[in-house]
Amino acid sequence: MIPMHFVRTLRCGSRSWRQPGALCSGLKVKAPNCRGCWEARSRSSTSYQGPVETMEDLLRRTVAPLPTYETRDKSSPPPESNSVEIMHFYRSLEKEQKLEFLSRLAQDFGVDHRSVSELAGKVVESQQRDMATVLQAEDRLRYSLIPRYRPMLSHISKVEGGVKFLVDLRADVIDILSSKASDSPHIRDLNGTLKGLLSEWFSVGLLHLERITWQSPCELLQKISQYEAVHPVRNWTDIKRRVGPYRRCYAFTHAAMPGEPLVVLHVALTDDIASNIQAIVREFATQDSEEDVNKINAAVFYSISSTQAGLQGVELGNYLIKRVVRELQGEFPHISQFSSLSPIPGFCSWLQGLLSPQRKEVQGVGLLTEQEWRVVEEVTGAGSGAEAVEALRKLLGTSEWMRSDHLVQVLEPALMRLCAWYLYGEKRRGYAINPVANFHLQNGATMWRLNWQADTSPRGITNSCGIMVNYRYFLQETSANSATYLQTKAISASEQVLSLVSQFQKNSKL
Question: What residues contact residue 487 under an 8 Å CB cut-off, 6+ apart?
């Protein structure tokens, strides 16, 4: 993370800055452990003074019943203060209290199941009548399926800071589900409702594409550095390079969350498609030079980071890449090479699982050739069989093996074969198990090239033995590739990748 005062000194001279204020000011909560006894006193930055009441009382007072079907378009909205109260109250709660709040909201203020059952019966009965009656019965049923809390969420989105609040709220819901803090079907339904609303509010037509430069606001540059999840930004010089000559940085923003980048894409403009990340983020030294268009023949997407956990599953990254391609084509019409240079998270964990002593069948799996196993035995001093497998597992668990040129040379073909299979052959529900691969393949990219020693940083070695992969975007083929992958789960891959997969299959019994 970049020290803010460095950026401000360099960028802003003697300008004075004010830290952005919180959207809603502090709520103080006195929270006994006993259920139903939590009290909240909320104070906003204005004159708002909330009442002291229990969580249950607050929910029953502020979450209004659904209007009847006949009055659904005629009822007046609740006062804005209700939304503000909910936001203040929720932000004041501890993690365990938030779980209780969300559980009550989802279960006690969801769908009226009895009404749904009755209306479903009426839909069945209406099938013998005219189409107008059928459609009206179906519309009544559709309306009854709206959770009672859904209008409350919509009203919150209309107050200042409300959309950001709901994005953070869904992040809490996702955390609850992923951590198994709750497996309630009501919480899962709440997650689905929030995702549906956020998908509408963050549709591509409502997003603004913004290019980030060294002249962008200091706070925005700071957030770009903080949110960088793939290749951490080290200092202010680093971020200056990443938004300078031969580099582009783009972000999607939304009017309801000003100054907050939603998803960020970093691009390197190069002579050819890069095969290692060091040349992009560490060895680039021409930050003050003018761009020579004759040296720009390829655009390499080397980092894409989603900044909002609550927008998980809301498609933003794929649209960002497509928009950026159009921007770059407008700026550099001659560019025809578009590719990612992507990390391979999960590869080493998968490989460690194959080599695990708990995996009984590992001794019969030809992960390495006989010659490769002999080198492992010589270098580690291990015996053959299970002892060599365990020695290799421990070796790959550190970066020590990278210090032996002989071992690096011997392990390269084996690890490249294994990595190709991990990306191409390991599936979940028929799709690539690696999330980065799945993302680019859904976008219509081709699994084009695996690159040895492409990321020799500690993170790169730990995650993928230093291997990276290019997903190539052949613009005339992306639509067809995307449709094929989504419909038939077939992966578009280059001859290099398919050759490595074939070598793996010959050696392995997986």
Answer: none
